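input
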Amino acid sequence: MKKRSLLPPILLATVAVILLIRLPMQAAERATDYSVFEPVVDIYGLINHNFYKEPDPKALMDGAIKGMIEALDDPYTEFIPPDNESDFDKIVRGEFVGIGAQVQTEENFLKIVTPLEDSPAYKAGIEADDLVVAVNKQSTFKIPVDKVIDQLTGEPGSTVTITIERATDTPPPGAKPASVPGELGEAPGPKPGRIRFDFTITRQRIITSTVKGVHRSGDQWSYFIDPVSKIAYVRVTQFTASTIPELDAACSSLVKEGLKGMILDLRFNGGGALVAAVQMADLFLKEGVIVSTKGRTIAEEKVYARAPETLPDFPLVVLVNRGSASASEIVAGALVDNNRAIVLGERTFGKGIVQNVHRLPLGAGQLKITEQYYFLPSGRCLQRTDDSSEWGVDPSPGFYLPMTNDEYREMIRVRRVEEVIRRRDAGGGDQTNWSDPDWILDHLKDKQLSAAVRTVKAKVATGEWEKVGEDAPPGKIEVAELKIVEERYRLLSRELDRVERRIQALSAATDEDAAAIALDISPIPEDTDLTGGTITITNAEGKTIATLKVTGPDFARYLTGAPVEKTDTAPIK
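output
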């Protein structure tokens, strides 16, 4: 008689032992997790049964979640409830379903800032400065922007009819008679010189473009900022799934046109998808570490560049400022640490966290949670903390070139004008100037960009970078950041003081007291525009110490809470 093998019983016994050990351990771990919430469940039960009025279970749940997240002391970890998931996805993925247009409020209606390129709105004939006065025959007059946008968005393939008011005398091709031709309730009719008409537009999935150039030519971007020297300018506004295909297509086209150098603008780019940042750095790097990550429960991981499909080794300048964060910092840090590019501008924001988005079961929402920190190839941690004096990415030596807030405002004002899509037959200025590099740089009002072009041209011509900024002395960047924080604190303190005085005025026992306190809020009404005026400061003996020119409209509000008092009663006219 053949003996039966002992192997199966041994295996079964081994598995049984493992299960007997592992299952109780898992149960114990799970029990430990749940035991944390036993007091929460008890409190919920007491509130639910004993509170003097019917509690809102959802509000209690949201409050408990909010409390846990706030206890982490991490401003970037957040819970996205189901009602906000759609908006969150638009931001993270850079896509939505709608007609494809940037909008703002004007004259109590929705105004088209610009249709998006290749969008249903653009194809239908929507133009910049159009007023959307009705959606599906419902007036948009004084309706909140979010509600009107909800009406414009919907399912792919569905249609929406919008009534447009435009400064013209002839309806465009494809337009239909306006469904809201005149006054409707309190909504006014068209202004003189304007007409109304309808467009019926089929909604589709809109992928927001994140790669921009110097100026528009129709609905396409022109990228050469110096057409003579073949120097290109590419601005990336966010890192989404569409960023790398867009950038790759633009760069491939520029290379075919004889590209000699490039400025990559990541200023005011708050980041986005890590994979897009890695892919962007990989486009410019043949080898080397791009970024590494470390976390409490996750081992260190390094991401390396690969040679295939790398762009040619042309001179490259990356523009950054304190609005460049996260994915922008990864790209800038990888390129400068691997000696592939020069970084010009200011120290970046310092957001170096790795986050994951976890969908909760049963559609209960999403949790965006910080899990790791980013580290540059040099080993420097990107993340800025309350006690850190080093963070983010610094400009290359000789390329620290800060801009003031007024300079940034003027730059952005011009930039917004050039982002608007206008039809080729719409006129709008002398387009021949876009072939003149000096005119372009003067027109754009951007000293960092002008400096970048100058140093790229020097590198192309001589093989050496021309230093167009300065070496930031030790502590200078920290002092600049300190001034920003101190100014923020000063403005907050002034606002708190103003609110406190307002509270005192409203709480005063008599109308006379209230009036007296209210007058003490500011010696000059805060809506007074003193731009262009002068202020003479004298000492106690009447000697003039200084005469100051007021250069902005908000001077009056800076006197709120200041140790000054009005010594005359002259009326302000």
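quick obs: Residues 476-507 form the longest helix (32 residues).
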